[in-house]
Amino acid sequence: MTVKNGGRWNNNIHYHPRILGAVPEGAQRGLDVGCGEGMLARELRRAVPHVTAIDLDAASIELGRAYRDDVDYILGDFLNHPFEPASFDVIASVAALHHMDGATGLARMRDLLRPGGVLAVVGLARNTLPNDLPHVLAGVTVGAVHRARKGLWHHPSPIVWPPPVTYPEMRAMAAEILPGSLYRRHLLWRYSIIWRKPQG
Question: What is the pLDDT of residue 197?
């Protein structure tokens, strides 16, 4: 799928294609968890007929609702909003899981996904030094090159820093809660988790 983000770039947007490339064929209902002002939700809507986007930040939701699209923006807490279990074909989340208890968030996403549906997460975890120093230095270098070429868009949503969970802890959590998931650590201080819920 072609990504259209209005020329904006940052470390989160850089990995939107990882999310969009995981959308299963024939998906009818999608959920964007921690949607912010809705960029990813609007990109998802190009492939999925019905997209719901939820966030706790009222200002971000208002920005999303100002766009002329048919994404269903919800101001609320993803962890306790009364979604129907197993009701989404694809659930996506970028840079939101560290805003909540990670294990609780992953389990909730798993439960809201239909059998055969796909969960696609891009998140932030905490570096541990000196073990992660090569990753940190490489990310600084590559990030500087991208910013020089593309500029840097500062999103308007709240920031949580530092992330509470390390990369190894996140990998272990994903393996426990989402057996068979594909976990990858990425250069620009992000990880991704892609998981297809088993049928039956």
Answer: 98
